[in-house]
Design a protein that fits this description.
Layout (H helix, E strand, L loop, with lengths): L2 E3 L1 H11 L8 E10 L2 E9 L5 E5 L5 E5 L8 E6 L5 E5 L10
């Protein structure tokens, strides 16, 4: 499985993971809703489960992805400041570029 995190997103995620209460947790990306070849994604902090792949990224963030969910392979996590501040998760490898 593969996951890409941009520099902006990694900065925000690492700040959260470095908090004392989150030291034992990793970033989880999940599919919150799926229809056809399109998915909506969410994130949380969690511990690894039986079906999880732990994907190490080049930004120092380990990401938990459910091996049984094909729409998670190739996700890209970004953090935008404009037009609205927040995370944007897409999967360009599946044709999902976020323009829904």
């Amino acid at each position: 499985m593969n996951c890409k995190i941009t520099r902006n997103a990694a900065k925000v995620i690492l700040a959260e993971l470095e908090k004392e209460e989150n030291k034992e947790l990793k970033l989880r990306v999940m599919v919150t809703h799926s229809h056809g070849d399109h998915a909506h994604y969410g994130m949380d902090l969690d511990t690894a489960k039986e079906n999880d792949a732990v994907v190490s990224t080049d930004k120092g963030v380990d990401v938990l992805l459910d091996r049984n969910e094909p729409m998670l392979d190739g996700v890209k996590i970004d953090y935008l400041y404009f037009p609205q501040e927040g995370f944007v998760i897409t999967n360009p490898s599946k044709g999902n570029h976020g323009d829904h």
